[in-house]
Design goal:
eight-stranded mixed sheet, 52% helix, elongated, 2 domains, single chain, Serine Threonine Protein Phosphatase 5, Tetratricopeptide repeat, Rossmann fold
Length: 368
């Protein structure tokens, strides 16, 4: 039991570190936009494991100002946390993401705002923070209208779209009468969620828009609608965030098999191959999830599969110093000092200050 607790503390020390150092995970950037001819403030929320992994993350761009972004990020972070993996047989409910918050899209300048988001905001995130693969765009009301405009753009780099109570539904119904637009969406592998409410003043036109999108939804273009009965224009966005996140990251959840006889490593890797095919992007298993599964294998006493898993991690992430460190400690526990020393030296070469690897080195030297 003591060994398991030590391993848990080692694996999750980054999360505790995050709570004590919020300033390292939230950045406010100011971007001088050539398309808008003014400065724009950008909030960037980083995942808790950002500084301790080599992952490529999903990106979620939220329009509407600070309060909406903070609210959205808080729920996204909560759902992406590792929670009771042994009891729930899952690593995360949704994946960790980088969340970027922007202001409101101006109705009289949406085309330039689209260029600002596509060609200035996203490149900034890629160059200053980290390249992202699967991208989502989120907006409410007028910002929801911007989300839909982006959906119809063939230049759009986004893959998933969420809007609540969008304005200007009649315009988009007209766009869906254009066969070229319909053909584009049907073959796009994009996904769209629209949320409307009976108590909202855009309800009737939103309902007509929802009915129009339903007619073109197929196995490639995924559309979902949620119609609520009691939420007003102000409350509809916050109460819809969880539904939106489940929709955006539908098919991402990896369920750990109960059976010890199944090869969980192969199932884990296959899960991401299937996911990549569904969304049309190459999505690698997150580095930190390899370590979570390694902990599970440790609990189940599946040492050989744990070693195989960590070696697979190194194939995906050659710079993964923690994979080397955990391999070294695993080999040490089974008495293979030769391999323990090889992998531990690799870990220290990637990071001479890795305390876990330094401790393993001391253990190995005592045994030699």
């Amino acid at each position: 039991m003591k060994k398991i607790l030590i391993l848990i503390l080692t694996l999750f020390q980054v999360n505790a570190f995050c709570q004590e150092n919020d300033k390292k995970y939230l950045f406010i950037d100011t971007l001088q936009s050539k398309f808008l001819d003014e400065n724009q403030a950008i909030q960037v929320y980083l995942p808790p494991d950002y500084y301790n992994s080599n992952d490529i993350y999903p990106l979620q761009v939220v329009l509407g100002g600070n309060s909406r972004t903070r609210m959205y990020y808080s729920i996204s972070e909560y759902l992406s946390e590792t929670y009771q993996i042994l009891e729930l047989n899952q690593l995360h409910t949704i994946p960790e993401s980088i969340v970027v918050g922007l202001g409101h899209a101006p109705r009289n300048n949406m085309e330039n705002y689209r260029k600002f988001v596509f060609y200035e905001v996203l490149p900034l995130v890629d160059s200053k923070y980290r390249k992202c693969h699967y991208k989502s765009l989120v907006g409410h009301s007028q910002d929801g209208e911007f989300v839909l405009q982006s959906l119809f753009s063939e230049e759009s780099p986004f893959h998933a779209y969420f809007c609540s109570a969008p304005t200007n539904s009649d315009y988009f119904i007209g766009e869906l009468n254009n066969e070229a637009n319909v053909s584009f969406l049907k073959n796009s592998k994009k996904r769209l969620l629209i949320v409307a409410s009976q108590q909202d003043y855009f309800y009737e036109e939103n309902l007509k828009l929802i009915d129009t999108f339903k007619k073109i939804s197929n196995g490639t273009f995924l559309f979902k609608s949620i119609v609520k009965s009691s939420d007003n224009h102000h409350s509809i966005f916050p109460v819809s965030i969880t539904d939106a996140l489940f929709f955006i990251f539908n098919d991402w959840l990896f369920t750990i098999p109960d059976s010890y006889n199944e090869n969980t490593t192969d199932l884990f890797l296959k899960h991401y191959e299937i996911l990549s095919e569904k969304i049309g992007l190459e999505i690698a298993p997150p580095e930190f999830d390899f370590y979570l599964l390694a902990y599970l294998f440790d609990v189940r006493k599946l040492t050989e599969e744990k070693i195989e898993l960590l070696k697979k991690c190194k194939e995906y992430y050659p710079e993964a110093m923690n994979a080397d460190a955990y391999l070294a400690r695993t080999y040490y526990t089974i008495g293979d000092l030769k391999n323990a020393m090889i992998y531990n030296e690799r870990s220290i070469s990637l990071n001479p200050n890795n305390e876990f690897a330094i401790q393993t080195k001391e253990l190995i030297e005592k045994k030699r």
